[in-house]
């Protein structure tokens, strides 16, 4: 009897684990109850809507936006009560906005439906009744046994049962999941790997118990119960048995596997979850301004309502005879009448809230993001990748960054490891320079320094080399054909090359190959190595204790051909030294510290011989931990901890991770732009500090402050923090400092180094230590006074904590996090702007980021150029929209004082409707896409210009008030200018006086049309005056908009339209333009409106120019070639000169070009040792010093 445990996915979550029956076979009678659970089918749904729910769901989402909902209310009010304007005036713009957004979202969802259907309908081969049958992917069910061939992509999450390879392994690539193109080895269940035909696989009787679906790609806990003679045999299942949906089978002919998670429960689908919505500072400003304008709107409506009843209090001023109210209206309650009039005024003035601004901003962000993706300067030929925009909502935030948090490995450095040396019992071995299997140019044959150890040490040396050949997860490929070229063929012989998910491991195995020990392959559970005597040694691989970021080490247990058992362990010095009981610890420790100071990545290697009894005990511990379904990770960690002890130290290795091209130049530019750069890394302090000096984060005269475990062991944390605080505050005389603009040029630079353990103590809640309540504040105060901060030994979560701490500080600075690996995802998601680098540690960072760039050097352009431009453009867009709507609606407000507050519209319905949609929308959209107020080259050359737009400076309240007052002034000029010019004026036509009838042509609608004409021309010319970058497109759109307005007005008033009930604009526009005074008044009023803004610009530029304005003026003088002729520092505004911490764009600042604190450097690529200092670089001419120092050439790479 089948019992349904749960009916839907939601209920399944209450069950801790699930039981799957392979091939849907019942277990043998008497073993366990057969309870068939219900699971979802294999249909993937990435779309948001269906045909039936699109309209209601989309409408609900759109009307959640305040502006849309507000206009809907206004539209309904116009329908319900008698309002002065037609419902069309609100309904049409709202309908346009809603329709455009619906079409865009509907089209995007239709594309998602198409993609889903193509995936859901692709064929899959399933074993049923001993035969392979074909079915659609969406019909796959949990428990089905799937047959997969090479290069096929897995349709769901599967447990590997058997493969075509004898050892029960298969190779997969997970590029579509995490971007790692390396081949990963997965293992079939030991007891089922012998079942290799359809009939044999179909005969398997087994159940799988495993955890409920969860999104972590690298974790899986389960066990399989295989029934042999009605007795179940339990075997553990882990991530090494799990084939993930989206991964591809490689180098394996075929496999059989059972489906365990299908459809939306696969790990790939669970990772679809959308990230939290990030909002930019500009969007917050927009919302604040909207609230202000809403208050203005309500105030206007209240004033007019009040004045209407004051006006009508006099019986002589009641409604005119031709507009006599009905008895029903007169008898209506005064409260209802007042409320109705208030709503009518709200409708009349509602255009002050710019609904079309939201659409324009959306289009600007969406279209603008393509300029980042199309930028050829951010195309990397080596990777063949361009910049990617995942979130266009944050374009302008790139221009507001105050703190940059960067990872080190793979972000500042190349993550391209080179084996440098190894140290065995104090003896140092330096092989050829190895870089990913290639001999570096200039390298000589093997150079073994101190290569004559005694006879006793020879055995240790060979054991060390064997340990590195065996303790890894490297895969070997004999040869590979790519585009018809065979790789791995060297001098006619087939040579192996190595693939691993860790570049360190490949560098170490390659290094051992150069030192005489070659790792050949893993075959039939045996690892084979070729020793110096060209003899093949075989070691049986018994256990792999995998690496994790908490233990920071990995181990293998092997059995040699003579039967000896060894545990080989390699890992970080901090995790190996405490577990060592013998060996030349001090000699190795000294060399490790020396290499760390050189900026090299070090690993320690140790071993432990195991007796058969010890090995049996180890197996028991590991199997017990692996079979547990609950807390498996915790129990495994405890088992590993118990096994990896009593080690004998063998030696240490050093590999180098070179600094990325132009990394130092980029960091220097970010500093000059006023940004604080923090490096957050898991590396040890000495290695990270050396990288910081090389990348110009720290300088020779930077005073380093240490907040590390070593110091807090000598002094308690409270005293250390107060000492550091006194040091930085004494240096700056206790002055309050602007956290963004940084130190003045005369102050000492401080650099802070903190490690993960001390950070945990600083972040600890106050209740644990009575004095720790204000540790965070003191720590933040120290950080604010430091020009650079290095956080080493950081766990991924600590990186996010640091970002969150700075985000939540009093100044609420805008933060940016940049990294390339899965360990950087948490800080990328936490920061205001997250940038992923397309590195070698997979694509998790890229997938979770807002923007992705190929290399760290591209950060300079995306911030200093694109970020700067986007912020300038959108700030003008927002201010301009509010300005033009004040100009539009304030004359309407003034007009009420001249029409007895009768809610008479000043402008025609067509003008009300089309003002924001057609007449004034395109010029500002184009401006916000292509405006370049300063040349690109100047922005790159002078990073300090970024400071001009810092702290949301262009959307501050004083500037907003200026734009609003300018709009009010223009509205007053337009209205009263037209009023006085036409007061008591008799117009002539063809030299004759007008009759009384034609005088009507110069009534309400002519007056309104004249004001509207001046309005459209004034706001368009205002934008033209603000435009610095003119192209034919600008000319076409700006003048084209004005032509369109004129042509529309002529057609609208020149033809009797049959669908209109009334034709109040008939011939009004032509009659107005046939009058000479009308032409003159239009020109006069436009000039008078624009004059104050022009005068203000001229006076401010002459007396108080900003740096940006100085450079604009100079660039015009040099006809756009300023960056080629003059040092930009000389153009900086006098008020700001000398005020920037890092030279304010002065490329010749001697402090910036001085070398870091590194006395000598060993040049490893030359035949002789070359000890040289960097000091002579200073003697070079200015034009060469930059290239001599920041180029990626040979010697510099060893730092």
TrEMBL record:
ATP binds at residues 407-409, 505, 547, 570, 601, 681-683, 793, 799, 823-824. Residues 846-1106 form the P-type ATPase C-terminal domain. The active site is at residue 407. It catalyses: a 1,2-diacyl-sn-glycero-3-phospho-L-serine(out) + ATP + H2O = a 1,2-diacyl-sn-glycero-3-phospho-L-serine(in) + ADP + phosphate + H(+); a 1,2-diacyl-sn-glycero-3-phosphoethanolamine(out) + ATP + H2O = a 1,2-diacyl-sn-glycero-3-phosphoethanolamine(in) + ADP + phosphate + H(+); ATP + H2O + phospholipidSide 1 = ADP + phosphate + phospholipidSide 2. GO terms for molecular function: ATP binding; ATP hydrolysis activity; ATPase-coupled intramembrane lipid transporter activity; magnesium ion binding. This is Phospholipid-transporting ATPase. Residues 36-90 form the P-type ATPase N-terminal domain. GO terms for cellular component: early endosome; endoplasmic reticulum membrane; plasma membrane; recycling endosome. Component of a P4-ATPase flippase complex which consists of a catalytic alpha subunit ATP11A and an accessory beta subunit TMEM30A.
């Amino acid at each position: 009897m089948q019992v349904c445990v749960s009916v839907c996915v939601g209920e399944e979550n209450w069950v801790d684990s699930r039981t799957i029956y392979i091939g849907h076979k019942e277990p043998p009678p008497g073993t366990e109850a057969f309870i068939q659970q219900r699971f979802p089918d294999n249909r993937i749904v990435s779309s948001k809507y269906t045909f039936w729910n699109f309209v209601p769901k989309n409408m609900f989402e759109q009307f959640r936006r305040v502006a849309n909902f507000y206009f809907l209310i206004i539209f309904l009010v116009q329908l319900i009560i008698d309002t002065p304007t037609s419902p069309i005036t609100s309904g049409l713009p709202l309908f346009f906005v809603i329709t455009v957004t619906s079409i865009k979202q509907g089209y995007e969802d239709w594309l998602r439906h198409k993609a889903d259907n193509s995936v859901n309908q692709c064929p899959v081969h399933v074993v049923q009744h001993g035969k392979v049958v074909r079915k659609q992917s969406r019909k796959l069910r949990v428990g089905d046994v799937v047959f997969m061939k090479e290069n096929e992509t897995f349709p769901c999450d599967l447990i590997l049962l058997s493969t075509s390879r004898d050892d029960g392994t298969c190779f997969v690539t997970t590029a579509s999941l995490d971007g790692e193109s390396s081949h990963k080895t997965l293992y079939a269940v030991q007891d089922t790997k012998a079942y290799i035909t359809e009939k044999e696989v179909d005969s398997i009787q087994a159940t799988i118990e495993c955890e409920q679906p969860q999104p972590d790609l690298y974790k899986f806990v389960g066990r399989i119960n295989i029934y042999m003679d009605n007795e179940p045999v339990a075997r553990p299942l882990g991530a090494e048995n799990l084939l993930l949906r989206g991964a591809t089978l490689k180098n394996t002919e075929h496999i059989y596997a059972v489906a365990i998670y299908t459809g939306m429960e696969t790990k790939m689908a669970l990772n679809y979850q959308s990230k939290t919505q990030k909002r930019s500072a500009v969007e917050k400003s927009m919302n604040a301004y909207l609230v202000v304008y809403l208050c203005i709107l309500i105030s206007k409506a209240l004033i007019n309502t009040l004045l209407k009843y004051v006006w009508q209090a006099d019986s002589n001023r009641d409604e005119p005879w031709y507009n006599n109210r009905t008895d029903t209206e007169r008898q209506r309650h005064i409260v209802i009448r007042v409320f109705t009039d208030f709503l009518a005024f709200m409708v009349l003035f509602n255009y002050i809230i710019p609904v079309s601004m939201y659409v324009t901003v959306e289009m600007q962000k969406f279209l603008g993001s393509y300029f980042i993706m199309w930028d050829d300067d951010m195309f990397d030929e080596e990777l063949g990748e361009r910049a990617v925009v995942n979130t266009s909502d944050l374009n302008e935030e790139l221009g507001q960054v105050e703190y940059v948090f960067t990872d080190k490995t793979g972000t500042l450095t190349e993550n391209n490891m080179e084996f440098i040396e190894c140290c065995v019992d104090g003896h140092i071995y330096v092989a050829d320079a190895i870089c990913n299997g290639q001999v570096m140019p200039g390298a000589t044959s093997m150079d073994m320094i101190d290569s004559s150890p005694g006879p006793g040490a020879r055995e240790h040396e060979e054991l060390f080399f064997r340990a590195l050949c065996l303790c890894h997860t490297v895969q070997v490929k004999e040869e590979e054909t790519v585009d018809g070229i065979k790789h791995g063929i060297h001098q006619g012989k087939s040579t192996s090359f190595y693939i691993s998910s860790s570049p360190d491991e490949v560098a170490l195995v390659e290094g051992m190959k150069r030192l005489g020990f070659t790792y050949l392959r893993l075959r039939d559970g045996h690892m084979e190595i070729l020793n110096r005597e060209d003899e093949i040694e075989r070691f049986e691989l018994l256990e792999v204790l995998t690496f994790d970021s908490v233990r920071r080490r990995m181990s293998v247990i092997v059995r040699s051909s003579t039967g000896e058992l060894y545990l080989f362990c390699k890992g970080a010095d901090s995790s190996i030294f405490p577990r060592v009981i013998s060996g030349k610890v001090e000699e190795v420790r000294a060399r490790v510290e020396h290499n760390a100071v050189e900026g090299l990545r070090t690993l320690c290697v140790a071993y432990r011989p195991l007796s058969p009894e010890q090995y049996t005990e180890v197996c028991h511990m590991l199997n017990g931990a692996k079979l547990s379904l609950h807390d498996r990770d915790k129990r495994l960690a405890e088992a590993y901890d118990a096994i990896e002890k009593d080690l004998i130290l063998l030696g240490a290795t050093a590999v180098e991770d070179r600094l990325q091209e132009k990394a130092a130049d980029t960091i220097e530019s970010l500093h000059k732009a006023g940004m604080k750069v923090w490096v957050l890394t898991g590396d040890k302090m000495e290695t990270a500090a050396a990288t910081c000096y090389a990348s110009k984060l720290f300088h020779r005269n930077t005073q380093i402050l240490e907040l590390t475990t070593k110091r807090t062991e000598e002094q308690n944390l409270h005293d250390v923090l107060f000492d550091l605080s006194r040091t930085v505050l004494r240096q700056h005389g206790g002055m309050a400092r602007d956290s963004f603009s940084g130190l003045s040029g005369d102050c000492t630079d401080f650099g802070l180094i903190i490690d993960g353990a001390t950070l945990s103590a600083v972040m600890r809640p106050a209740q644990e230590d009575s004095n720790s309540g204000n540790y965070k504040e003191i720590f933040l105060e120290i950080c604010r006074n430091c020009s650079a901060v290095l956080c080493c030994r950081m766990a991924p979560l600590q990186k996010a904590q640091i970002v969150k701490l700075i985000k939540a500080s009093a100044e609420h600075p805008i933060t940016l996090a940049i990294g390339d690996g899965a360990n950087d995802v948490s800080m990328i998601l936490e920061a205001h702007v997250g940038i992923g680098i397309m590195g070698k540690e997979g694509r998790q960072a890229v997938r979770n980021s807002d923007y992705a760039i190929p290399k760290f050097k591209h950060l300079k352009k995306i911030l200093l150029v694109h970020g700067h431009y986007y912020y300038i453009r959108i700030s003008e867009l927002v201010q301009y929209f509010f300005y033009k709507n004040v100009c539009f609606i304030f004359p309407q407000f003034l007009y009420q004082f001249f029409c007895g507050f009768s809610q008479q519209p000043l402008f025609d319905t067509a003008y009300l409707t089309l003002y924001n949609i057609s007449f004034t929308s395109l010029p500002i959209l184009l401006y916000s896409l292509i405006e370049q107020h300063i040349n690109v080259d100047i922005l790159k050359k002078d990073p300090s210009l970024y400071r001009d737009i810092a702290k949301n400076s262009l959307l501050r309240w004083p500037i907003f008030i200026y734009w609003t007052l300018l709009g009010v002034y223009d509205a007053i000029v337009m209205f009263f200018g037209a009023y006085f010019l036409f007061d008591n004026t008799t117009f002539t036509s063809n030299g004759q006086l007008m009759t009384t009838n034609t005088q009507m042509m110069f009534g309400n609608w002519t007056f309104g049309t004249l004001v509207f004409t001046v309005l459209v021309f004034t706001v368009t010319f205002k934008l033209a005056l603000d435009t610095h970058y003119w192209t034919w497109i600008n000319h076409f759109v700006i003048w084209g908009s004005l032509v369109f307005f004129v042509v529309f007005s002529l057609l609208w008033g020149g033809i009797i339209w049959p669908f209109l009930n009334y034709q109040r604009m008939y011939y009004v526009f032509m009659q107005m333009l046939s009058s000479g005074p009308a032409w003159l008044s239009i020109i006069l009023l436009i000039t008078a409106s624009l004059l104050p803004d022009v005068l203000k610009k001229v006076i401010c530029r002459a007396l108080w120019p900003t740096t940006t304005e100085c450079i604009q003026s100079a660039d015009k003088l040099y006809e756009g070639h300023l960056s080629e002729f003059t040092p930009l520092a000389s153009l900086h505004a006098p008020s700001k000169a000398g005020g920037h911490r890092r030279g304010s764009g002065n490329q010749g600042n001697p402090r910036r070009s001085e070398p870091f604190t590194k006395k000598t450097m060993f040049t490893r690529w030359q035949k002789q040792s070359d000890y040289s200092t960097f000091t002579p670089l200073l003697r070079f001419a200015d034009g060469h010093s930059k290239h001599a120092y920041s180029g990626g050439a040979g010697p510099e790479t060893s730092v």
